[in-house]
């Protein structure tokens, strides 16, 4: 058609009026495109193959990394201390009998003959292991008996018994607190609690150690957040986690004030009584008995029984519906093997002894107070911990340049004391994982089995060891 | 989402029936939509079509990596762009040739309709360069300056 030709004419005119270099570029592009479209064959690019010589060169070049990396010679892992015999009042280190102020053996039940005889009888009846977790054929009647006895002793509705004391705290907290919940926790909480908080993925408010006012301030802040978002606040769970007797500090939580706050702000309270069960209170029932607070005010009580009874494991107790959740949802309960029967029977025997002779708690308190007096007066060292606490932290008065130096100095004190017949130990932490790393300290653990003379002798040895090491260091500094 | 059957459907979905036609249709429809704006001149519309087409194809074919679904190739395609995944890395297959030809065709049409105005030509050829270079076999798996490497 004439219009079609006219368009073609227009096109040619336009092409003519275009700048020549641009047309050239386009022509080049078209030529390239035609080459790509019609004059190439499809191929799969091959991977470069190495020749035999290249392969041999690469193999020769390669140096393997050492299985054991370079470690400093003074690493504590390279110098383990070993002892023989039972972890009782006296332990035998490298052939020398030492007074044991290192093991947490508050009621001196390690090596107790009655407990051992009962355990051997149980061993002959049931064998060694439970061979399964509690929910999968691992429950023996001894476990149920132990749970009943513990709940009767404490006056709790139900008790769930764990086979590992650490996991009582670290797996029970995440069983109830999930991502999105709120937990108020003391700054100085022990590592087990910290792991539980991490595993729970909840929002954690750390309040200053034993500072109920700081806790109230934080609860108010959380309350404000809740007021702004009432829909979310309805689905939010709030928890308060504290220890009865703090492992890292040796002091007691202000339980009545905490209970009052808990009731006012509707927060569920988790109490870790690992160090206070079998220690505080007239009958050793823990911090609730110590303050005269009804135990039902606390929603969940957990404790590791490894510190005061001759056993491993722990328990947690509370209302029946709370505990039932844990039997399925607590990972340490549901997925760990149950307690061996002989240890369960040791626990029962220990509990019976505790109930029979409550004067052991009085003796423990007396020993702890006495030790406090003796250790407080060591020049150049400070003692942290309440007089009634069987755990005391002895640390350097000032502080040295680096933490490593302080740790080394305290290690020297420990070695000195050991050479003179007293076994003490440094409080160890996973330095990069603790929320607040406490000052390096020697952790002294008092037991109710010691007489005052033994304690006096031990305290004198510790004082001499400190004096020797401090003098040595002062001499080094002076020179 | 598990893509059943093929190890990685990204390698072959552009070979499937109607994929090429669909591609042309999208460009045409997009161009027609842009033409419907009264305030844009013909030259501007063609430059826009060319540029938008190049930006979109660059992003989809040469920037996005991996697949929207789990593949059974142990993650080999996680670091590869869509272009590199086509036909499992085989160069100069018909799909690749087609997808190389279309931007050139759009470019030639655009430079014609913009009457070879210098600015338009510059913009169009720049975007064409961006789109053509990654398609060369020499650029297979190449990441310049470590951009978009992982």
TrEMBL record, chain A:
Domain of life (superkingdom): Eukaryota
Listed EC numbers: 2.3.1.50
EC primary class: transferase
Start and end residues of each Aminotransferase class I/classII large domain: 97-460
Residue stretches spanning the membrane: 20-39
Pfam families in the cross-refs: Aminotran_1_2
UniProt cross-references to InterPro entries, sorted A to Z: Aminotransferase_I/II_large (IPR004839), AON_synthase_class-II (IPR050087), PyrdxlP-dep_Trfase (IPR015424), PyrdxlP-dep_Trfase_major (IPR015421), PyrdxlP-dep_Trfase_small (IPR015422)
Presence of the UniProt keyword Transferase in the record: yes
Cofactor(s) in the UniProt record: pyridoxal 5'-phosphate
UniProt keyword annotations, A-Z: Acyltransferase, Lipid metabolism, Membrane, Pyridoxal phosphate, Sphingolipid metabolism, Transferase, Transmembrane, Transmembrane helix
Associated pathway: Lipid metabolism; sphingolipid metabolism; Sphingolipid metabolism
Keyword Transmembrane: yes
Protein family according to the UniProt entry: Belongs to the class-II pyridoxal-phosphate-dependent aminotransferase family.
Protein name according to UniProt: Serine palmitoyltransferase 1
Phylogenetic lineage: Eukaryota, Metazoa, Ecdysozoa, Scalidophora, Priapulida
Gene: LOC106817567
UniProtKB/TrEMBL annotation, chain B:
Subcellular localization: Membrane
Keywords, alphabetical: Membrane, Transmembrane, Transmembrane helix
Residue intervals passing through the bilayer: 20-46, 98-113
Listed InterPro entries: ORMDL
Keyword Membrane: yes
Membrane-topology descriptor: Multi-pass membrane protein
PANTHER family, alphabetized: ORMDL PROTEINS (PTHR12665)
Family per record: Belongs to the ORM family.
Name assigned to this protein: ORM1-like protein 2
Organism in which the protein naturally occurs: Priapulus caudatus
Lineage per the UniProt record: Eukaryota, Metazoa, Ecdysozoa, Scalidophora, Priapulida
